[in-house]
Write a structure and sequence with these properties.
Pfam families: DUF416. The protein has 203 residues and is mainly alpha-helical. It has one domain (6-186): YP_001051499.1 domain like (YP_001051499.1 fold like). The protein is built from nine helices and no strands. The protein has helices at residues 6-12, 15-40, 46-60, 69-78, 91-110, 113-135, 144-150, 152-169, 176-189. The longest helix has 26 residues, at 15-40.
């Protein structure tokens, strides 16, 4: 094929860009948790929002901004929902958002690119599962995987990750301006990875 796939391209980037890419993906998943929280009253958005804000600050001000990744992980774990007791589709994207943020924090702790790659995998898998659960009754089981892969929401997720990799690969270094630009890009996109509208007041 010649072309590197998404995950190979992440591995090939500098650690700072890998982490920033994973953070961008987590930011796109946060509204899924927020929506679930609003529907059920379960959990709290604040620990997730706080963790992401701390990570954005860390990238924007690497010399001056410290982050207690382990403590943030504990806070995220405390508000992570379980599928048990929540008989609704929205619990899975909410769980995935927590998993992605916790995985990103683990990557910061371990300085391990595997975790940043895993965030991209979680985001793609979250979209795929959401589509699958939505269309399972309409599509024969043997055609389900292909139907998911061809679904516009999944194709958009893959294309968005590739486009963001193109953008980051073209940047010489990670700067405060670049970090702020990525935050603005999430807001401008206006939707989560499963197509939910982003609450602009959540920051």
């Amino acid at each position: 094929m010649g072309q590197l796939n998404t995950f190979q391209r992440i591995r090939a980037m500098e650690a700072e860009k890998q982490s920033l890419f994973a953070l961008y993906l987590c930011e796109r998943m946060l509204p899924n948790y927020e929506f679930f929280h609003q529907l059920t009253g379960f959990g709290e958005l604040k620990p997730l929002r706080g963790a992401l804000n701390a990570l954005w600050d860390r990238h924007a001000n690497p010399k001056h901004s410290k982050i207690n990744a382990e403590r943030w992980q504990e806070k995220v774990d405390e508000v992570t929902p379980s599928e048990y007791g929540h008989d609704m589709l929205g619990v899975y994207p909410a769980m995935d958002a927590c998993t992605a943020i916790s995985t990103l924090l683990q990557g910061v702790l371990d300085k391990d690119s595997k975790n940043f790659v895993d965030v991209a995998k979680v985001s793609q898998a979250s979209v795929a599962k959401f589509i699958e659960l939505n269309i399972a009754d309409e599509v024969p089981a043997e055609q389900l995987r292909e139907a998911v892969n061809q679904h516009e929401l999944y194709q958009y997720e893959v294309e968005m990750q590739q486009a963001m990799l193109n953008y980051l690969e073209a940047q010489p270094t990670v700067t405060k301006a670049l970090v702020n630009q990525l935050k603005q890009m999430v807001a401008d996109e206006g939707i989560s990875n499963i197509g939910l509208e982003v609450n602009q007041s959540s920051d």
